[in-house]
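Retry 2 of 3 after timeout on previous attempt. Resubmitting structure tokens to design endpoint.
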């Protein structure tokens, strides 16, 4: 009798911390986190950008280095280190909750990839809070005298993940329901 667990066992393919789509979710989260952090450190150390540096990249797109010490759109702005630690801890707790969702409920590759994007982005921004005292943002879209908020790779991943979850929930789930009828 073999002492190795049966890999096809339901306990190993569906559980609290690992499910059938966990591998793709983990690869996505780790890749997102690494890409985000590599970009930020490259901009700071490789390019040598200092806080407030800005240059025009395209007529509608600037590269600028700002530090967001609040949450989305700088709401609840507070540069106190204890606040940054609190937000970083929240990012970890939210990521763990999303991981449990991915492990237990993920029904498609799209859902797993979407949750992985959100997890990787949240952890990337959480690391920034501890390493930089706020989230390092670099991308600024603007046109006709109006500017959008400054964002980073992690923010792009989070938005893409939310769009993927909405698509999975509203379109794919509806298609699955109509096909089952």
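Retry 2 succeeded. Sequence:
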């Amino acid at each position: 009798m073999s002492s190795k667990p049966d890999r096809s066992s339901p306990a190993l393919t569906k559980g609290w911390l690992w499910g059938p789509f966990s591998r793709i979710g983990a690869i996505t989260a780790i890749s997102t986190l690494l890409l985000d952090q590599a970009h930020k450190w490259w901009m700071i150390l490789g390019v040598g950008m200092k806080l407030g540096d800005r240059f025009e990249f395209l007529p509608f797109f600037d590269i600028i280095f700002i530090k967001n010490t609040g949450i989305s759109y700088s709401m609840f702005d507070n540069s106190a280190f204890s606040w940054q630690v609190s937000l970083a801890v929240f990012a970890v707790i939210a990521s763990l909750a999303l991981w449990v969702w991915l492990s237990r409920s993920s029904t498609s590759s799209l859902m797993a990839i979407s949750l992985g994007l959100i997890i990787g982005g949240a952890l990337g921004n959480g690391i920034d809070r501890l390493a930089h005292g706020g989230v390092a943002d670099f991308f600024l879209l603007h046109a006709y005298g109006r500017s959008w908020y400054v964002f980073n790779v992690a923010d792009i991943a989070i938005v893409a993940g939310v769009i993927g979850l909405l698509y999975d929930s509203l379109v794919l789930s509806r298609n699955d329901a109509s096909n089952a009828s």
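Attempt log closed. The chain has one domain: 21-47+54-71+78-175.
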